[in-house]
Structure formats: C-alpha cells, structure tokens
Amino acid sequence: MNQQASPVQTKDRLHWVDAARGFAIFGILIVNMLSFSSPYFTYRGEGLVWNNPEDEVTLAVIDIVFQASFYSLFSFLFGFGLQLMTDRLQLKKLEAVPLLTRRLLFLLLFGVIHAFVIWYGDILITYALVGLLALLFLKVKERTLIYWAVGLLGGFVGFITFISYLARTWIAMYGQEPLKPVEPIIANYQSNSFTTIWSQNAQDWLFGSGLGLFFLPFLLLPLFLVGMYFARKRWLHHPMQHKSVLKKLWVYSLILFLVFKLGPYFFGNPLWFEIAQDSIGGLFSALFYILSITLLGQTELGAKLMQPFNYVGRMAFTNYIMQSILCVLLFYGIGLGWYGQTSPLQGVGIAIIIYGLQMIYSSIWLRKFRYGPLEWLWRSLTYGKMQVMGK
Predict the structure, then answer these.
(1) Which of 57, 328, 368, 374 could be bridged to 317 by S-S, CB 3.0 to 4.6 A?
(2) pTM of this prediction?
C-alpha cells in the first residue's frame, strides 16, 4: 500500500528539542535587537557610541552568552530536523530529497519576502541554501558527516584566523571604525517612506548577507552536519539510554565554550580572533545549550520549566517573523521611530518583553491549533495539501 508523507504528530515530538528551538529564538532576538535598533552591529562603530560601563558590560554579556551561539544552535537543530524528516520518509518507503527540496525552496521564498519587505537581517535564505547543500549528505556514512564538518569549519576558521593574526595591527587600528557613514542609514530607517526603508533594506542585505553567501559552506554547513550526526546517533531521541555519553559531551562542550567565548576576554578580546570565537565558540556553546536542555528535560521540574519555551519552539517560524514585524514597528519611521536611539541594555529589555508576550500567545494558540499560522502554511505547501489546523 502506498503511503503519503505527512508532518510529525504532536505525540511523537521530542519536546526538549522543541524547547531548545524556543530558547534559540530568544537568543537570536537578543542579538538581532542590536541590528533592529541601530546600524552599528552591521557596520561597526558601536564603541564610539556605546562606550559607558553599562553599555560595555551589556555588549560583553551578549558577545559571550548569545552572539553566534543561537544561530549555531538553530543551525544544529535545522540539520537535526532534516535528518528526522528523512528517517520518517524512509520508514514509509518514500524518497526524501524531492519533498525536502520543495520544503527548502518554499523557505527560500519566505526568506526573500522577509529580507526585502520586512528586515534585511533574514536568516531564512541562508538556511534554505545551506539546507539544499546538506541534502547532498543524506546518504553518506555517519563518520563522513563529522569529517566534512571538522574539515570545512576547522580549515576555514584556521586559515582566516591565521591571516587575521598576521594583520592584527591593522585590524586593531581600523576594526572599531564604521565601515561606512552611518548617519544616512539612520535617517533612512527613521523615514516614514516604505520605498526608502526597502531600498536601505536591500543595501544592508547585500552588504551583510549577500556578500557572506560565499562563506556559508564553510561556516554553517558544518553545523547542519553535526545536527544530522546527532540525529543519526539518536542520542537526543532516547537521552536516558545515552545519558553517560551526553554528560561527557556536556562537560567537553562547556569547557570549549568557555575557552573560545570567554577566554579571549582575558587577552583583551582581540578582533583578529573574532572568527574563531564566533564559529568554534558558537558551535560548542550551541552543543552545551542543547545538551543542557535535553538533560534538564528528563526531570519533572525541568520539563515544567521548559514548557513555555516548548510552545515558542513549536511556533518558531511564526515567532521569528513576528519578532521582525514588531521590531520594525518599534524602530523604523513607519512605526515609533526609535532607530538609533536605543542602548544595548534597553534593547535587551525590549527583547525580554517581546519574548514574554510570545510565550503567552504561543501557549494560547497551541491549545486550539496544531501548528502556528506560518508553520501551517509551510507544511501545506511542502506536502501539497491543506493540513488540518485545529485540534
């Protein structure tokens, strides 16, 4: 009998993985708030504006705890999810590549709309393109996934870090200066003209994400592959069966997280080490977070504490886009016009409020519906038929 592809049912979900996805959405918002509210995270120069002790401490905490850690965590989870979908389709004797390709192409479409109509800092285009590359690894052996991940990430980061070290004097001299005048950018985003804002959106996307597409296979694909490897090993499927392995990995990831993310601050946090701090440190901090959430989720208290994150994680796509819409209305001239006027600490406070609201409405929504609205639309497009929305 022919079987049809269908989304995973609620009873079969790995709730600690959903909670990790929800936690990643929070961390991504904390970091993105710097870009939503000012041009400095994209074009540098933040040290010339945010230079009081309060700002410096806030930026240091964001750099150590959040920066690069949560897009790394989300990349890990994206690769993990690709492998899960592949495994489910194979059990039904269905080909995974056509359906996953369609799913990723629709994600690419969503990303283009998000990047150019709402906010330039979109990550969906990146995930769609890297996901298409990851499909090439669906049938390779487990160890091949790790060989490629280590080779791509280690080789690229090692090369760039070596070159940066050789140029460290020049980087230290000019690295804190803005890469271009920021006054026109602030004026454009404070404008109440949609065309002016969209034009600046396109420029910032080309400067930030567009030029960075070349580096995706070296920086993000390895994170996808590590996620696929974990899914193959099924360590997160049955945490109690693999508790000893997970605890060892937790200790190793914590140590390397602290070495690469916190360690540079004992040596002046040099800019030449930034790529290693973000890429290698981001990988191990992401592993530390997912392992911590998984182990915590096996306890009764931990499961209760993570439930609000679980709700947000099950609606991660909707919540991610909603964050962009809310922040555009807060910071751009078509809304309240706070762009360029918000300190890093104020941005953290705004992020916490937004995320708290997302916890509330996600829990209310999922009492009545199976999926978030954008999750429902994406699933319906992926599977070629309208999915059942209500419970």
Answers:
(1) 374
(2) 0.92
